[in-house]
From TrEMBL:
Cofactor: [4Fe-4S] cluster
Organism: Desulfovibrio intestinalis
Keyword NAD: no
Family assignment from sequence similarity: Belongs to the Nth/MutY family.
UniProt name for this protein: Adenine DNA glycosylase
Reactions this protein catalyses: Hydrolyzes free adenine bases from 7,8-dihydro-8-oxoguanine:adenine mismatched double-stranded DNA, leaving an apurinic site
Gene Ontology biological process terms in this record: base-excision repair; mismatch repair
Gene3D superfamilies xrefs: Helix-hairpin-Helix base-excision DNA repair enzymes (C-terminal), Hypothetical protein, domain 2, Nucleoside Triphosphate Pyrophosphohydrolase
Keyword check for Metal-binding: yes
Keywords: 4Fe-4S, DNA damage, DNA repair, Glycosidase, Hydrolase, Iron, Iron-sulfur, Metal-binding
Listed NCBIfam families: mutY
Described purpose of this protein according to its UniProt entry: Adenine glycosylase active on G-A mispairs. MutY also corrects error-prone DNA synthesis past GO lesions which are due to the oxidatively damaged form of guanine: 7,8-dihydro-8-oxoguanine (8-oxo-dGTP).
């Protein structure tokens, strides 16, 4: 039976207070820090402990920070690309994408002159392709409106395509030293634990309280180091399962002191992940493979795919594959092979993709004989795409594709399937995707 948390006058529950954890709070950081005024969020009064906390954090960061490629020169371009790339991406993978990107697009001017297809191809596997399109649009805007120089004021940074409040704050503080916080999921977790924020962190009042504390904690003239140190602490020490014994802020941390660090942050409602049952078909004539390019806007905008769609109620995946291909291209096809199922997680849905090999029916006869007389005929229509291509396995490698379709192509054409960071389960810097 759950125990009732009996409130002490300072707002700390008796159960929590008696949960006696190893660290003692610093002098002056005890009951006076925990006013009885807020039921949902307990506030600490700012005091002498903040400079101590800042110093402990910076000292720790100076010794324990990871050597990352964007921590060398801190150009705004590198800070920007790394911040956007790391959204929903594990660090190791982010580093390899970052290095590849900088080799191909070392500066804003090179990026701005690139073809979108090349940018999407380099982004392939990171997911959320609108981020890549926005980066390209922002680079072109910097060239057109700022003479190729990355703007340094917050308003101009914020006005770049795809740059929301988090990314703008990160660039302004880390690249230009502005006194602004960076509150990603890691920082949210650290602050909610230090200040024992006991309501869902993505909602008010907790979100506002966390942002105010995050700002208050930024030391004058040290925003670059401090913001990175907060994120680094969240990534390395104050993880989902906190390593409080190794934490430089343990003496300042209320949740740790109360023994409830594992109960912070308080989660909000979980997003419902819907299952999606879909099909796709690979139509081949000899060495040639039919692919189509999706419209510029919407899901997988401007990416190449094998035609397909959802399985309708009462329909088998095979039937759906034939129907979808017909609807999207006008080609009459039949199933020749079952390539199995690819499962892939996205933010709001989980895709089960049934994959089939297809061939044209009556390619050289029947009513459509004339239209099918070419070796690789054009589609009679394109209802879900802006462009089509008969391509080869080698050429396919140079087309940007959604992760599930790339997995299929790799499995068919003998390339080991790459892992992807698109699954919804990736939580690194998840908070930033609200931008
Ligand atoms: S003491 Fe524990 S809970 Fe508190 S900030 Fe450090 S790692 Fe996180």
């Amino acid at each position: 039976m759950p125990q009732t948390r009996k409130k002490l006058p300072n707002g700390v529950s008796k159960k929590d207070a008696s949960a006696g954890q190893p660290a003692s709070l610093l002098p002056g950081f005890e009951e006076s820090c925990l006013p009885a005024t807020a039921d949902t969020v307990r506030h600490l009064t700012p005091g002498d402990h903040i400079p101590g906390l800042q110093k402990a954090l910076l000292d720790w960061f100076a010794v324990h920070q990871r050597a990352l490629p964007w921590r060398v020169s801190y150009t705004p371009y590198e800070v920007w690309i790394s911040e956007v790339m790391l959204q929903q991406t594990q660090m190791e993978r982010g580093v390899s994408y970052f290095l590849r990107w900088m080799q191909r697009f070392p500066d804003v001017a090179t990026l701005a002159a690139a073809h979108e297809e090349d940018v999407l191809l380099l982004w392939e596997g990171l997911g959320y392709y609108s981020r890549a399109r926005h980066i390209l649009a922002a680079a072109r805007k910097i060239m057109a409106e700022h003479g190729g120089v990355f703007p340094s004021d917050l308003a101009s940074i914020r006005a770049l395509p795809g740059v929301g409040p988090y990314t703008a704050g990160a660039i302004a503080s880390i690249a230009f030293g502005e006194k602004l916080p960076c509150v990603d999921a890691n920082v949210e977790r650290v602050i909610s634990r230090i200040f024992d924020v006991d309501s869902p962190v993505k909602q008010e009042p907790a979100a506002g309280v966390i942002h105010r504390w995050a700002l208050k904690l930024v030391p004058e003239g040290k925003s670059r180091e401090h913001n990175q140190a907060m994120m680094e602490l969240g990534a390395l020490v104050c993880r989902k399962k906190p390593l409080c014994g190794a934490c430089p802020l343990a003496a300042f941390c209320i949740s740790h002191h109360l023994g409830i660090a594992d109960q912070r942050p308080v989660p909000g409602k979980r997003a419902v992940i819907k299952p999606v049952n879909a099909v796709t078909g690979v139509l081949r004539i000899g060495k040639n493979i039919f692919v189509q390019k999706r419209p510029p806007s919407g899901v997988w905008g401007n990416l190449w795919e094998f035609p397909g769609g959802r399985v309708e109620p009462g329909e088998s995946p095979e039937q759906a594959s034939v129907r979808e291909f017909m609807e999207e291209t006008g080609f009459e096809v039949r199933v020749t092979a079952n390539y199995g199922v690819i499962r892939h997680g996205y933010t709001t849905y989980r895709l089960t993709l049934h994959c089939f090999g297809l061939e044209l029916m009556n390619p050289c006869g029947g009513a459509e004989a004339e239209k099918y007389s070419e070796a690789c005929p054009p589609p009679l229509q394109l209802t879900a795409a802006q462009q089509y291509k008969w391509t080869t396995p080698e050429e396919l490698e140079n087309l940007a594709m959604p992760a599930a379709h790339r997995k299929l192509a790799d499995s068919l054409f003998n390339k080991p399937a790459a892992t992807s960071d698109e699954p919804a389960s990736a939580t690194v810097r998840q908070a930033r995707l609200t931008e």
